[in-house]
Design goal:
This protein is of the alpha/beta class and 431 residues long. It is built from 14 helices and 16 strands. The relative contact order is 0.13. Bound molecules: NADP nicotinamide-adenine-dinucleotide phosphate.
């Protein structure tokens, strides 16, 4: 059978990883497909100065339009990132009837359904496995592996930088700012860490997974999102006392009245399988109505793990091109629209961490506020020998609605002995 020819646009981390696999694993890919997957064109502004594998006869260009227009290219790999040029590339390729493989979570979370509609209109395909959780084939799992089930809950650790920072705080007892600076020095965190540590990268990924799992289009901006900046070594000390740990958990829960979606630091039992996910690793835990629990674990980023996801998509799309069938990258023919439920409706146990100037009657005042909102205290914890002028302690509460918790926290934050607004984190029992 005739080879399928590819154009690769963007030769950074992911692009160079994909190229290395396409060239280094060509024989095995051809054996799987029954025909070769060949690179016809590569593109990046620095293509002429970059170290690349030997690519005889391959067009090297700094102009992505030449890749899209290349007569032999049937699949374009968009590995530039962002929502500007990347969108132009994808739209131009699809409009020309060429299929697209991308790793771009930001763009696909924002405009995935429109891009898929464009692909369908022009008889092309669109694939995005690498956009979430890098080397973990979680799209394939949701689209094919467990598509027979009805998903009830999905929890993910989807940002390797945050997971690295949290586990360093946990293991070394260092402050967030120090760990972040070290992560930046080692290249694990970007110079501008906002997208990672404030949860925006993770919420794009959760929006995409919610589409796959529940068939609903989710605007990332509607997902309740809290980053990890406020999590301190102290929170880990208290979490450990409660036999829990803390991770940035992306959660999607199906409820009878809609989806509950959040990205936020959360307590989870040390016995939970997710608690063992440390460093830059990612994981996804899915609970289906029929098949119950499944768990997926692996590297969430990196040239080769993400490159494998890109090349696997190229294999799938090449097979579709020669076999004639197309599969929606969202697992559903069309995504329904709808807002997620407000996070205030979440019912959960909570961890409330305080920093106060010690005085008589503090606990009674806080307990009074909680009681007035119908919230029952589960435990009060205080580590020994803490300074009285900046005294940390923790109250855990029985399951209550987040709306009541937020109202209580706002009231408590205004008390004169409270040094900073209490930190509230849900305690995830279901994992
Ligand atoms: N890094 C990861 O582990 C990872 C994991 C999962 C998903 N992703 C996603 O994968 C995509 C790429 O990420 P990355 O980490 O590989 O980024 P990167 O290292 O910054 O690479 C981006 C590449 O795009 C090229 N580029 C920029 N403008 C271009 C243009 N106008 N025309 C053609 N090429 C252009 C750059 O060229 P020059 O180098 O010549 O400037 C560079 O080669 C993003 O959507 C990202 O979210 C990344």
């Amino acid at each position: 059978m005739k080879p399928v020819k590819i154009g690769v646009i963007g030769l950074g981390n992911v692009g160079s990883g994909a190229l290395a696999i396409l060239t280094g694993n060509a024989q095995s890919l051809a054996e799987k497909l029954g025909f070769p997957l060949e690179i016809a064109a590569v593109c990046s502004p620095s293509v002429n100065t970059r170290e690349l594998p030997a690519l005889p006869g391959v067009l090297k260009t700094t102009n992505w339009r030449e890749v899209v227009a290349h007569p032999e290219v049937e699949i374009v790999a968009e590995l530039v990132g962002g929502t500007g040029t990347a969108r132009e590339i994808i739209e131009a390729a699809l409009t020309a009837g060429k299929s697209v493989v991308t790793a771009n979570k930001e763009l696909l979370a924002a405009a995935g359904p429109e891009l898929w509609a464009l692909a369908v209109a022009h008889g092309a395909s669109l694939a995005m496995e690498a956009s979430v959780a890098g080397g973990i084939p979680v799209h394939t799992v949701l689209r094919d592996g467990i598509s027979g089930d009805r998903i009830e809950t999905l929890f993910g650790i989807l940002n390797g930088t945050c997971n690295y920072i949290l586990t360093e705080i946990e293991q070394k007892g260092s402050a967030f700012a120090d760990v972040l600076a070290e992560a930046q020095r080692l290249g694990y965190a970007e110079a501008d860490p906002t997208a990672d540590v404030d949860g925006f990268d993770a919420r794009s990924k959760l929006a995409i997974l919610a589409g796959l799992a529940f068939g609903q289009r989710v605007d990332p901006a509607t997902i309740y999102t809290e980053g990890i900046r406020r999590v301190s070594p102290l929170d880990f000390a208290y979490a450990h006392t409660l036999k829990h740990t803390i991770r940035l958990i992306c959660a999607a829960r199906r409820t009878p009245t809609g989806l509950l979606l959040s990205v936020r630091p959360s307590l989870l039992p040390q016995s939970a399988i997710m608690a063992g996910v440390t460093g830059a690793y990612n994981a996804v835990w899915v609970k289906g109505e029929f098949g119950q629990d499944t768990f997926y674990y692996g590297r969430g980023a990196g040239a080769h793990p993400t490159g494998v996801a890109v090349v696997s998509d190229l294999v799938r799309v090449a097979r579709e091109l020669r076999g004639g069938a197309r599969t929606s990258p969202f697992a559903h023919v069309q995504l329904a629209s709808g807002e997620p439920r407000p996070m205030e409706q979440l019912r959960s146990s909570y961890y409330l961490r305080f920093r106060v100037r010690d005085a008589h009657g503090i606990i009674a005042k806080l307990a009074g506020i909680l009681a007035a909102k119908g919230i029952s205290i589960d435990a009060v914890l205080q580590l020994p020998n803490e300074p009285k002028e900046d005294l940390p302690f923790v109250i855990t509460v029985e399951p209550a609605e987040e709306g009541a918790i937020r109202a209580a926290v706002a009231e408590m934050a205004a008390l004169d002995f409270v040094i900073e607004p209490p930190l509230a984190m849900p305690i995830e029992k279901g994992l």
